[in-house]
Amino acid sequence: MRLVFSVLLLFSAITMVSAQKKLFITPSLGMQLLTDYALELPDDDNFRYNGFRLYPDFGVHVQYELNERWAVFGGWNNGGIGYSFTLLNENKQLLLRYSNTFPAQRFPLGVQRHLGTVKLFKSKRRLNISKNLKVTTTEVTDDMLYLLLFRTRIIFGGTLDYMVPTTGDNVKESYANRDIEFRAANTIEQRWGPSLFLGLNLQFFNYNKDNFQLIFFYSQGVKRKTKLDLEYDRLNDRSTYQSSVGTRGSYVGIQLAYPIKVKEFKSKSFY
C-alpha cells in the first residue's frame, strides 16, 4: 500500500509540470531467469543449488508518458516461480538435475525516468533518404543522420505476485537411478507476495517514431513463497544427506516490447 501511495504521489507531482502527455499500450515477450537460495546446505561439496531455470514471460502494460523525462506504467505479466538443484559425482560429472516451476501472475506498477539518448553510426546518406520520404527541411534533425538510435530509461517499482495453483503444489516425490536416490517435498507458504524491481529500458526510434523496446531488469521478492525439503542417498557409499532450498520469486528478466500510442493529450503547463 505504501508503494502504491508513493507512486501516485510522484505521479501527481510530475503531472503538475507536464505540458504534453501520451498514452501507450505496450505488449511484451521475453524470458525470466529464475533464482532460489539455500535454507539448509548438506555436507556435500557436490551439491549445487540455484540452477537458473528459464521461464517464458509475456504480458501487456499501459504506459502514461507525462513528459519527455517521466512516465508511469502498470499492467500484467505471466511468468514463473521455481527452484532447481544438481548433484555431481566426485569427478564433477552430472548425476542428477532437478527443477520445479510454478506459474505466476504478476501485476507491476512502476515509474520510468529518461536518462539520455544514444546515437550510433552516422551516415550522410540518411539525409537523402529523409528527403525521399518528403521530410521538410525544418523537420530534418541531427538524429536522422544516425543508423541506430535509442533512448535509455531507468525503470523501478513494485509488483504484486500470485502463484497459480497447480497439481504439483504441496506434493512429495521420489526418484532413483544407479547413483542416487532422492526424496523431496515442496511446500507452498504463500501465494500472494510483493516484489521490487529495477531495470533499464532501451527505446529504439527512427525518424522521430518509436519502435521496439529492449528491457533488462531484476525483480527481488520480499517474502519466501515456497520451499523444497530434500533428502538423498549416494549409493556408492550409502551416505545420506539433507538439504532445503527456497525461493521468493526473484528473477532476472529480459523483454522485447512494442509501444502502441493510443492517445496524445495536450494541456497548459503550470510552470
Describe the protein's architecture and organization:
With 271 residues, the protein is mainly beta. The chain has a single domain, classed as Porin, CATH 2.40.160. Helix content is 8%, strand content 65%. It is built from two helices and 15 strands. The protein has helices spanning 2-15, 125-132; strands at residues 20-34, 37-40, 47-49, 53-65, 70-88, 94-122, 146-163, 172-176, 180-188, 192-206, 209-221, 226-234, 239-247, 251-257, 260-266. The strands form two sheets. Strands 1-4-5-6-7-10-11-14 form an eight-stranded antiparallel β-barrel. The radius of gyration is 24 Å and the shape is elongated. Mean pLDDT is 86; it is low at 14-18.
What does the main sheet amount to? 8 strands, antiparallel, barrel
**What string, H for helix and E for strand, traces the elements in order?**
HEEEEEEHEEEEEEEEE
How many strand elements?
A: 15
| Amino- and carboxy-terminal Cα gap | 31 Å
Helix content: under 10%
How would you classify the helix and strand content by structural class?
mainly beta
Per CATH, the class reads Mainly Beta
Beta fraction: over 45%
Q: Count the domains.
A: 1
- State the shape: elongated
The name CATH uses for the topology is Porin
Cα-atom Rg, whole angstroms? 24 Å
Number of contiguous helices: 2
CATH architecture: Beta Barrel
Spatial order of strands in the largest sheet: 1-4-5-6-7-10-11-14
Unreliable stretches (pLDDT < 50, length at least 5) are 14-18
What is the average of the pLDDT values? 86
Query: Assembly state here?
Result: single chain
